[in-house]
Specification:
Layout: H1 3-17, E1 21-25, H2 31-37, E2 46-51, H3 55-62, H4 66-72, H5 77-89, E3 95-101, E4 116-123, E5 129-134, H6 139-158
Parallel strand pairs: 1-2, 1-3
Antiparallel strand pairs: 3-4, 4-5
């Protein structure tokens, strides 16, 4: 599905359920927040977005523990989960989406190649879900696919 179509579908579910969304992004640099707020009427269901690109920002803005970053790295399901849960704690939203990854062209390792992206979806009184995917393509392609996967995951999480 196209990003705009997915964003509208997610916004419809949030509005239908009376929920507010918060985003916590690293490798996508605010693209998820941008696509969500491009939907008319987004102030009804979009609370805020965090762009926490560095580990310091993840710790300061979202409360990600140093031990999680040290043990698992910034690109891990554990960090994505901590980002999503921290976004809920540091906002008034009831649902959070987090994205952290390696968009490239450099920064990959054999264990975490370029294109590795970790996601989490969290909600008040719900279990946090996490997932890791590896995307192919250039930097923009990886980031676009990450936003798409985050939106699709949010739709599944909300339904």
């Amino acid at each position: 599905m196209e990003l705009e179509t997915l964003a509208r579908a997610v916004s419809h579910e949030l509005k239908r359920q009376g929920l507010m969304l918060v985003t916590a992004e690293s490798c996508t640099g605010g693209w998820l927040a941008q696509i969500m707020t491009s939907v008319a009427g987004s102030s009804e269901w979009f609370e805020r977005g965090f762009v926490a690109y560095t580990n310091l920002a993840k710790r300061e803005m979202l409360g990600v523990k140093t031990t999680i970053l040290s043990r698992y790295g910034a690109v891990s399901e554990q960090t994505a989960r901590a980002m999503a849960e921290g976004a809920l704690t540091h906002s008034h939203a009831q649902v959070a989406i987090a994205i952290t990854g390696i968009a490239g062209p450099s920064g990959g390792t054999p264990e975490k190649p370029v294109g590795t992206v970790c996601f989490a979806w969290a909600g008040k009184k719900r279990d946090t879900l996490g997932r890791k995917q590896i995307f192919a393509g250039d930097r923009e392609g990886v980031r676009r696919q990450a936003v798409n996967a985050a939106l699709q995951g949010a739709l599944d999480f909300l339904r």
